[in-house]
């Protein structure tokens, strides 16, 4: 099959490209970085260099494809973050419609069912709706849990203050996922021949926040690291002081609030809290410890 992968050689796109090329598929990886060409080609894939905001580039790249893996790039330094995220989704949708691609797999998120109280996930909610409206296109929305690798951002807090936390309590359960588990699920979905529109939750573990402190603390030789529930204001101030732009810090504060009040986990729980990924919290703790000690 001819498959297009967005996301350059990121944490999901790279293992996805590796798996699909190993299976013998014709893979093209979209990247905005010319310096990635040799790395993409070394995987056995073709490189398409251009911007995902460029409709003509997307149309040229999508033409003739059997399926596409669609993800929106992070816009941490942007203003009007939700609007700009949705605009990328609109470009993808238009390119799909004009080139006749019949199958898409979207990297979405737990919480994308809700239009409110989910921070940056609100953009994915709108994009899912855009793709649902495409005629003669089968779609799978991979609603992924919180990326394990996001915990790397907590390393300075543990090193400097001896704590880890967020604006939700230690008793709140958070769906978690490893990027490689997302890549495996995406690879399965991209080669399916189907006319259905489906939601697939991609979660590797579902754990209380207090377990993050216990498991990571034990892995780094600091078993007494506590989980601390911050106020919304403390959460915003902490992210701002760490250098996150104000708009994104506000969105992440809102996302934490959505986890605290259960809005983000609601549909996942109603689907039976499915866990299909292999990488458990304890497995990832080895990666966390390696990064902590590096």
Automatic annotation (TrEMBL):
Gene3D superfamilies: NAD(P)-binding Rossmann-like Domain, UDP-galactose 4-epimerase, domain 1. Transmembrane segments: none annotated. It comes from the Bacteria. Residues 7-119 form the NAD(P)-binding domain. InterPro entries: Ergot_Alk_Oxidoreductase, NAD(P)-bd_dom, NAD(P)-bd_dom_sf. Pfam families: NAD_binding_10 (PF13460). This is NAD(P)H-binding protein.
């Amino acid at each position: 099959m001819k498959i297009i992968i967005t996301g350059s050689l990121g944490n999901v796109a790279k293992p996805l490209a590796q798996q699909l090329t190993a299976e013998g598929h014709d893979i093209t990886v979209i990247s905005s970085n010319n310096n990635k060409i040799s790395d993409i080609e070394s995987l056995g894939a073709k490189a398409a260099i251009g911007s995902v905001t460029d409709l003509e580039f997307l149309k040229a790249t999508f033409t003739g494809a059997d399926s596409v893996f669609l993800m929106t790039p992070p816009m941490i330094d942007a203003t009007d973050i939700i609007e700009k995220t949705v605009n990328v989704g609109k470009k993808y949708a238009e390119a799909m419609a004009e080139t006749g691609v019949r199958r898409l797999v979207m990297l979405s998120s737990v919480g994308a069912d809700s239009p409110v109280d989910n921070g940056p996930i609100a953009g994915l909610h709108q994009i899912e709706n855009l793709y649902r409206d495409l005629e003669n296109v089968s779609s799978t929305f991979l609603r992924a849990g919180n990326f394990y690798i996001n915990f790397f951002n907590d390393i300075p807090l543990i090193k400097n203050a001896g704590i880890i936390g967020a604006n939700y309590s230690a008793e709140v359960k958070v769906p978690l996922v490893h990027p490689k588990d997302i890549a495996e699920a995406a690879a399965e979905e991209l080669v399916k021949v189907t006319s259905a529109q489906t939601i697939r939750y991609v979660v590797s573990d579902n754990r209380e926040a207090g377990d993050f402190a216990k498991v990571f603390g034990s892995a780094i030789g600091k078993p007494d690291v506590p989980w601390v529930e911050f106020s919304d204001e403390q959460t915003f101030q902490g992210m701002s002081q760490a250098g996150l732009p104000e708009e994104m810090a506000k969105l992440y504060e809102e996302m934490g609030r959505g986890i605290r009040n259960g809005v983000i986990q609601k549909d996942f729980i109603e689907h039976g809290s499915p866990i299909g990924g292999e990488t458990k919290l304890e497995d990832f703790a080895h990666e966390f410890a390696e990064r902590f000690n590096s």
